[in-house]
Design goal:
The complex is a heterodimer of chains A (685) and B (285). By secondary structure, chain A is of the alpha+beta class. Chain A has 26 helices and 19 strands. With 285 residues, chain B is of the alpha+beta class.
Chain lengths: 685, 285
């Protein structure tokens, strides 16, 4: 079937970050729509430029397939009053399905007779189906921010035309005042007048001739060919930055590249500043040779038809002047900032609100100092914590285009102020997902814990895909950093100490509630983290339930538990079954105290079990503390014969209440010792 | 081609927009930070009646002064403000043609509309739109207003704000605001050098913190008093004054970051009140 379908929504320039989610939303909805209607097709592709988003499909049928289905109605004896006379229910069923009495068939299900009607579905033309389905989809395209187009329509930017074609025919539909059509607009350098698309299949060709490359992959190809030539000419490289290149390719409908230069003097500025300035002010790429920055940059211009060298040179001159103005500003900020060591900014933090109602930036800094002290008492670490937020007050980071340099600027200025390397590194990498230095890791862990606590106090709790402050990612980074660096960190202590400090600020919140919520949030994240490492969900749960606050230990325990399961399956299952049983018995029981009365131990098996348990308790715990989990599990396994004998010979629910309770206490003590490793009853066998 | 003087650009653009049906208006007779503060924008976009206006607005940004030491930063520069309500469908095209009218060849220059959603926390206003970049230099702010004075707008206007100095530098091929030729006899520097230098001193060093704080409080009170009485235009004058005093105090460095939020909110509350009172009154006329 050689049918072609085209949807193009032509708008005024869309924000770069809006384009892809919008077009993928359209595509997903089209795919679902085609699936639901059992419509086959060869290929569906999305296309987009700053001014247009759309979908192209080929290989669609003209009509939806015709199909007969049988719809089940009420039992025959209810549908008919007597033979040949329909009841109200029977009539209602026919009416609801737009069927007539002659369409009724009778079928037996489980010996009972029901009425059915045969119904024809499908056969509608695709044009009709699409024109019905499309308006709502277009209205519901998700945009982070919308504008009012009219009383009844909001969108990211004004819509100018909607080209909607099935081969050479317009699929008629209307959204607000915009009617579908068979025209679009060319690149603005070509003309402001509309052009006709005679047939959907000619769309990409017509646009190409009119200065527009509608397919992203094609723009990308042109871009890289261009780039390669330029880089070869000056024998240099770029650092692939996907996000920037995506931006460059989506602020133009046709990408041409120009190589520009800036004055060598600016190379005395830290390279991070130049790269960020080029990126954020001029949407342009920095150029390197052997990792050293060169005084060049590459800009993208939206000029499909411009060949005049003189004009291109003029454009280049202006970009270079724009660049110089920006670098001059950056240099000004940089030199201003160097006049004041970072320590002097700590005091100024007092005047800066960190989060409304949650104190100043200085309060935050003090919390970070206190928390890092819990991890390790060390002068350098203390200084790191004190300096960690000072760069937020520098001229550079306060400038909108350079805020992304937060942290990095602390490290860079630190070097100029001759702070030890260990301090500079930690400051520099504090916002990275996975800091490479240990002190950097400590800082990011406490900083992120503090962020998470603050958000929970504010009631900003992630739910489903709602996570505006990226708390999930922050928690995941904490966990990963701890595991990667093999750090002994007790999250629970840090979270509680931090909440305590918020409390001292006289922030009004239910400290126990927040503690519970943050803990279960971390538990959840760790569980997922462990699963992503390739462990099954039940093992992840069994472990995190017991030791969520120590990710490093949790991951190791998983490994040994997994091994046990694989290597000693029978033992593993026995333990799990045993622990499930114990848990069940104890579920309904309320023990007043846990002191086992030795005088009530009547049976030998009780005494033996208890004796052995006591014997290994200390060594077992020592093994756990030393993270010798193989040994720890072996101690648990060695309990088995005693436990088996106990259950075989001792009846727990003795008639004598004292004896019964004493035995329940033995079980409880058993459960406790197993629980020190994990909650085996969560494991699935 | 004959060199475009600063005043030619201004006159050409005004002529261009007058042909688009704009009322050619004047700058406001009070210190403002942007053309948006002019009642011809602030009040006139609130109601549903059509409105087209074009006016220049020398805008004061006390913090941007550099004692004439930086060729690209000054504490007062010229905006040309255009408001079209409702926004015409082909407004981008009209705008581009206005650039052509002042001698910018569209085909030989790289012009991009780059996302930049404008907002003014002091005016309780926001919109969506772009900054227009000409060969990497921002020359225009282009905004579809959505809210003004904290009120949702029923009819969406477009605001086009040209940075006249930036455009003049481009057209004249100079790289310093001070060297812009105003007409054949005078440069921008001839007109403003002394002004810039003195205002830099004033803004950064001579604003009297305590006295100006008192002024802010007084103007705030006065704005409320007049607005409550239904004297909308006189009341709004004091809202503008509050905003300007706040800008001066900020440049003087006497407003901490935390206080800043608070001051902005106080001005915004006044702006909201002014907007409400304006609508109340115009709907009863």
């Amino acid at each position: 079937m050689k049918n072609y379908f085209l949807l193009e929504i032509l708008t005024e320039e869309l924000p770069v970050s809006y384009i892809k989610p919008a077009v993928l939303f359209l595509k997903d909805n089209f795919i679902n729509f085609l699936k639901e209607n059992e419509i086959e097709f060869n290929e569906i592709k999305e296309f987009f430029t700053p001014r247009r988003i759309g979908i192209f499909i080929n290989g669609l049928p003209e009509k939806r397939k015709v199909k007969f289905i049988e719809i089940q109605g009420p039992p025959k004896n209810i549908a008919f009053l007597k033979e040949g006379i329909l009841s109200e229910q029977g009539k209602g069923f026919l009416k609801a399905n737009k069927a007539k009495e002659k369409d009724i068939i009778i079928k037996k299900i489980n010996e009972k007779e029901y009425i059915f009607v045969k119904k024809k579905i499908g056969g509608e033309s695709l044009k009709k189906l699409i024109s019905q389905f499309l308006p709502n989809i277009i209205r519901n395209i998700p945009f982070p921010k919308r504008m009012k187009i009219s009383e009844n329509l909001t969108f990211a930017r004004p819509i100018h035309s909607i080209c909607l074609l099935f081969n050479n025919q317009i699929i008629k539909f209307k959204i607000d005042n915009i009617k579908s059509s068979n025209f679009t607009y060319p690149h603005r350098d070509k003309s402001f007048k509309k052009i006709k698309i005679k047939n959907a299949k000619e769309y990409f060709d017509i646009l190409r001739k009119n200065g527009v490359i509608a397919l992203y992959e094609e723009r990308e190809k042109i871009f890289y060919q261009n780039l390669k030539k330029i880089l070869k000419k000056i024998d240099a490289q770029i650092i692939e930055e996907k996000e920037l290149i995506f931006e460059m390719l989506n602020i133009c409908e046709y990408p041409s590249l120009i190589l520009c230069e800036f004055k060598k003097d600016y190379l005395s500025l830290p390279k991070e500043i130049i790269i960020t300035g080029l990126k954020n002010y001029l949407h342009s790429l920095a150029v390197f040779k052997d990792n050293k920055l060169l005084p060049y940059f590459i800009v993208v211009i939206n000029k499909p038809f411009l060949k005049d060298k003189k004009a291109i040179n003029e454009i280049k001159n202006w970009y270079e002047k724009a660049c110089e103005a920006r670098l001059e500003d950056a240099k000004y900020y940089f030199n201003e900032d160097l006049k004041k060591p970072l320590e002097e900014l700590i005091e100024e933090e007092k005047k800066v609100i960190w989060i409304e109602d949650l104190g100043s930036l200085y309060d935050k800094t003090e919390r970070l100092v206190a928390l890092t002290k819990i991890i390790k008492e060390d002068e350098d670490l203390k200084k790191i914590a004190y300096l960690s937020k000072t760069d937020l007050l520098t001229n550079m980071v306060r400038e909108k285009e350079f805020t992304s340099l937060q942290g990095k600027m602390g490290g860079i200025y630190g070097k100029y102020f001759n702070y030890p390397q260990i301090i500079c590194d930690a400051l520099y990498e504090q916002y990275e997902d996975l800091p490479k230095t240990i002190y950097g890791a400590y800082l990011t862990i406490v900083d992120r814990i503090d962020n998470i606590n603050a958000s929970f106090i504010k009631g900003e709790i992630p739910k489903g895909s709602y996570d505006p402050f990226g708390l999930k990612k922050q928690a995941d980074n904490i966990i990963n950093t701890i595991v990667y660096h093999n750090l002994d960190i007790n999250l629970k202590n840090l979270i509680n100490a931090d909440l305590e400090l918020f409390w001292q600020l006289k922030v009004n919140f239910d400290i126990e509630k927040i503690e519970r919520e943050v803990s279960s949030f971390f538990k959840e994240r760790l569980e997922l983290y462990i699963q992503e490492k390739g462990y099954s969900y039940d093992i992840a749960r069994a472990i995190t339930k017991i030791i969520w606050w120590n990710p490093k230990s949790a991951v190791k325990r998983c490994e040994y538990l997994k091994r046990l399961k694989a290597e000693k399956k029978e033992d593993y299952e026995k333990i799990v079954i045993g622990q499930k049983r114990v848990r069940n018995i104890l579920k309904e029981v309320n023990l007043e105290n846990l002191d086992i009365n030795e005088n009530l131990l009547i049976k030998e098996e009780e005494r033996e079990l208890l004796k052995y348990r006591k014997e290994i308790a200390k060594d077992y715990e020592e093994a756990l503390n030393k993270e010798d989990y193989e040994k720890a599990l072996n101690y648990l396994l060695s309990l088995r014969p005693y436990i088996d004998k106990f259950f075989d010979n001792v009846f727990v629910m003795d008639e004598n209440l004292d004896i019964r309770n004493n035995r329940l206490k033995i079980l409880k003590s058993l459960k406790d010792i197993f629980d020190k490793y994990c909650d085996f009853s969560e494991c699935v066998i | 081609m004959k060199k475009k003087h600063f005043q030619d650009i201004l006159l050409t653009l005004q002529y261009f927009w007058s042909k688009e049906g704009c009322l050619i208006y004047s700058p406001y007779n009070s210190e403002v930070g942007a053309g948006t503060f002019n009642p011809a924008t602030f009040f006139k976009v609130l109601d549903e009646k059509p409105w087209r206006v074009c006016y220049p607005e020398p805008s004061k940004r006390p913090r941007d002064g550099r004692y004439c030491q930086n060729p690209l930063r000054v504490q007062q520069y010229w905006q040309l403000q255009v408001i079209l309500k409702p926004a015409p469908q082909n407004i981008q095209e009209i705008y581009l043609k206005s650039l052509e009218a002042i001698g910018i060849n569209l085909k030989n220059n790289d012009i991009k509309f780059i996302e930049d959603d404008w907002e003014s926390p002091t005016l309780g206003a926001w919109g969506v739109g772009w900054q227009v970049e000409l060969n990497g230099i921002e020359i225009t702010q282009f905004t579809y207003f959505q809210q003004m004075g904290g009120l949702d707008l029923k009819v969406i206007p477009v605001e086009i704000t040209y940075g006249l100095e930036r455009i003049a530098m481009f057209l004249q091929g100079v790289f310093s605001i001070f060297q812009i030729e105003w007409n054949k006899d005078f440069t921008w520097g001839d007109v403003y050098f002394q002004n810039e230098e003195e205002f830099s001193f004033f803004n950064f060093q001579e604003v009297l913190p305590e006295e100006y704080l008192k002024l802010f409080n007084f103007y705030e009170k006065e704005a409320k008093r007049l607005l409550e009485k239904g004297l909308v235009y006189p009341g709004y004058d004091y809202v503008i004054k509050c905003s300007h005093i706040f800008n001066l105090l900020e440049a003087r460095g006497v407003i901490s970051v935390s206080e800043r939020v608070n001051y902005i909110k106080r001005v915004r509350d006044l702006a909201k009140l002014a907007a409400l009172k304006y609508l109340e009154k115009t709907s009863t006329f």
